[in-house]
């Protein structure tokens, strides 16, 4: 089955919006062995939309259109479909009924803008939308199945899994594909490539190998496209894991926080955070994960010196003599957090995220990390030459990784930490 | 100037990666009045790449290719350019020199995979890369300027601003375009459309009006494409702001946290957070903003009951009798956080993010918010039927907005809060 994708919206061309929908579609299709062949994005321009619908539906089995089904004047998908297919717009009774129910549930009054959403090209079938006002459109044109979907991700997601995939499965068989993704942190892409070249001169042609940097995780992806490859894939997965050892976070999807939580689960330990320059990001990354409450007791975002002293018990003397960004303050932040929370282990970070606040001694990008248990606190000073948000993301990733390695009982540093270590 | 964009990478087709580069390119081009005409994305497939380079370079002035310049075997852009243009790959002395310098600065040894990056189609000019190993490629083909750029965002960004834009400016004049974007929170898109229809029957044709939902902010965008429109645009901007009143966050880019910080600056107040179900996300959103330290004293992520009691002084009696998700606990979390931090105002949230932890009385999605000053604490209970990450994002947005409205001195609720309020 050949699948093309057409995305529409001025916001996608103007850079206002980052498209995550095509990734969602690809991800939902992947387990069935369905791959996107080509993806085209155009603005809300009726002429260009018509051209692309015509072109993309010619050489493909399925064309999925995303966006342009909303109530406003710049939503042109139904109109373009009507023009290209020669089926004029008419009010669709099921679409109207859907709109009425949608409005009733919310205590809304349907307005004229909303009602536009009930007009579809003649001969279309509707695709129910469980959460939004716009129904999807299913229309055959020159032997191609055209499916128009709403641009709102939370509406697209269930429409894909509950409506579109079952419909396409009833038309097209799914192929065999099996993928293993291993999340890695602490090695660069070209180091990885070299390690593979050396360790696996006999890498089999039947397994595609790919690397993908998805900050902060580097993903190693093994893909088999032939049936009966399960065992071979499993065996190569294990070889890869053995080669990369402590740098392996786990199988994807796996975040830095999830890998750290996994170690906490293995060791039946719980943790706490004390954050200054990351401002709650470490805690937030951990608590994104369902069930984190069993291992994460809490955190203190001690942005002001006063909170460092009053809540965490950092000594005013240390703050005044060494400054807030210093080894002793990082250590005291961690011991304070461990004390007030009763946690077994923790992470503390204090640094200068910038763009202001740097000094000659401690320029922007300087950060002290402390991690470990009350009787075994490790520390490290880095100088990370990155802009504020990336600096915060990097410190968060490193903090979580250092605690993960601590729990794992290894003392190697991830490559980034070695590279930017202040000697 | 007509500009097409070709993105390449299996990760973009497989859904592994969300493309933010095209948005970056569009955003850097926008102030010059340069708009992207069409965007095509294909996988690492040499045949498809060659086809699209050929097609997309035919009807355009500029073709920008993004991705496929890396050291690994699936990086095919230089190869495809060589094939399409008929200029064979040869080692480019400047590219080689760049690679050598890049490696030297990092104490790396160049390997064979890296050296591949020095081979470019004959006749190419290189585009320096300040941060990465891959130089960009500038090549003329059938009257079109083809520019190949690296896929790593941090390498693309400076290459665009420092190399590509100045180069294109020297070739093409920039057009007039002026855009005003107003960030709004608390009104739905179709309510907005109706308000505009009613209030502005005389909306001028010379100003394009667009709405864009960029969760959680709704953006109202006014665009003028004719010279000399500055005054008119300014005047309509002010009319729009007056119409939308307290729902206006500010001019974009503006986050919920930035709008709240702006009010804190106006009132010369500082704040604190006490978070349970959002797990540090509110603090993290605030501290993303440079200079937030002058208004944000810190926060407590009191995930465990013990931290609620020990650090914030929430009474064990309240925790046992009313439960952690209750009005009195939200109030006590806020008063505790105000007390330990000495802040003027704050936000506290306690709720059930799910997927587990719900009860019949307090199902997943229940959240108590408390906000205001020690002598004037407001509370609200909502039941938000969203999945964990979206629930956390929504509670964060609402918490920040409720504090913003409090500081502004208005007592209207944003529409989402009214809709999901537990009566």
UniProtKB/TrEMBL annotation, chains A, B:
<dbReference type="InterPro" id="IPR036653">
    <property type="entry name" value="CinA-like_C"/>
</dbReference>
<dbReference type="InterPro" id="IPR001453">
    <property type="entry name" value="MoaB/Mog_dom"/>
</dbReference>
<comment type="similarity">
    <text>Belongs to the CinA family.</text>
</comment>
<dbReference type="Pfam" id="PF00994">
    <property type="entry name" value="MoCF_biosynth"/>
</dbReference>
<dbReference type="Pfam" id="PF02464">
    <property type="entry name" value="CinA"/>
</dbReference>
<dbReference type="InterPro" id="IPR008136">
    <property type="entry name" value="CinA_C"/>
</dbReference>
<dbReference type="InterPro" id="IPR050101">
    <property type="entry name" value="CinA"/>
</dbReference>
<dbReference type="InterPro" id="IPR036425">
    <property type="entry name" value="MoaB/Mog-like_dom_sf"/>
</dbReference>
<feature type="domain" description="MoaB/Mog">
    <location>
        <begin position="4"/>
        <end position="171"/>
    </location>
</feature>
<protein>
    <recommendedName>
        <fullName>CinA-like protein</fullName>
    </recommendedName>
</protein>
<dbReference type="InterPro" id="IPR008135">
    <property type="entry name" value="Competence-induced_CinA"/>
</dbReference>
């Amino acid at each position: 089955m050949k699948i093309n994708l057409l995305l529409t919206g001025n916001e996608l061309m103007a850079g206002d919006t980052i498209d995550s929908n095509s990734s969602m579609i690809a991800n939902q299709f992947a387990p069935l062995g369905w791959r996107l062949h080509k993806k085209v994005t155009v603005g809300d321009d009726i002429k260009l939309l018509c051209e692309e619908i015509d072109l993309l539906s010619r050489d493909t089995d399925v064309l999925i259109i995303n966006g342009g089904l909303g109530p406003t004047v710049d939503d042109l998908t139904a109109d373009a479909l009507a023009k290209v297919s020669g089926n004029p717009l008419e009010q669709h009774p099921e679409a109207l009924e859907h709109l009425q129910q949608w409005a009733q549930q919310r205590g809304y009054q349907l307005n004229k803008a909303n009602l536009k959403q009930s007009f579809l090209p003649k001969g279309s079938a509707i695709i129910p939308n469980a959460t939004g006002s716009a129904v999807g459109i299913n229309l055959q044109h020159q032997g191609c199945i055209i499916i128009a979907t709403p641009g709102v991700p939370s509406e697209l997601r269930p429409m894909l899994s509950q409506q579109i995939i079952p419909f396409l499965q009833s038309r097209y068989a799914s192929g065999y594909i099996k993928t293993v993704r291993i999340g890695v942190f602490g090695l660069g892409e070209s180091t990885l490539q070299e390690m593979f070249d050396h360790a696996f001169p006999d890498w089999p042609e039947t397994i595609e190998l790919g690397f993908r940097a998805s900050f902060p995780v580097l993903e190693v992806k093994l893909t088999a496209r032939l049936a009966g490859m399960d065992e071979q894939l499993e065996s190569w997965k294990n070889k890869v894991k053995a080669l990369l050892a402590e740098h392996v976070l786990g199988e994807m999807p796996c975040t830095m926080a999830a890998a750290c939580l996994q170690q906490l689960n293995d060791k039946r330990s719980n943790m706490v955070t004390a954050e200054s320059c990351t401002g709650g990001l470490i805690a937030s990354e951990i608590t994104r994960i369902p069930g984190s409450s069993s291992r994460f007791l809490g955190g203190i975002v001690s942005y002001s010196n006063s909170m460092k002293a009053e809540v965490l018990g950092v000594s005013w003397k240390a703050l005044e003599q060494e400054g807030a960004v210093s080894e002793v303050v990082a250590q005291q932040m961690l011991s304070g957090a461990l004390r007030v929370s009763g946690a077994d282990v923790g992470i503390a970070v204090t640094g200068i995220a910038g763009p202001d606040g740097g000094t000659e001694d401690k320029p922007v990008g300087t950060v002290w990390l402390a991690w470990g248990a009350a009787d075994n606190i490790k520390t490290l000073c880095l100088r990370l030459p990155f802009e504020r948000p990336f600096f915060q993301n990097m410190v968060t990733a490193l903090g979580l990784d250092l605690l993960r390695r601590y729990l794992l009982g290894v003392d190697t540093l991830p490559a980034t930490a070695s590279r930017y270590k202040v000697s």
